[in-house]
Amino acid sequence: MAKQDALFKYTLRLGDNALILSQRLSEWCSYAPLIEEDLALTNLSLDMIGRAQALLKYAGEIEGMGKTEDTLAFRRSERQYYNNLLVEQPNGDFAFTMARQLFISAFELYFYSEMEHSKDKTFAAIAAKTLKEVKYHLEHAKDWVIRMGDGTGESHYRIQHAVNELWMYTGELFEMDDVDKDLIEQGIATDLDAIRPLWNKYIGDVLETAALIVPENGYMQTGSRKGIHTEHLGHLLCEMQYLQRAYPDAKW
Question: DSSP alpha helices (H): ranges in the chain?
Answer without folding.
Answer: 3-26, 35-63, 69-74, 85-88, 94-115, 121-149, 153-166, 178-185, 192-209, 231-240, 242-246
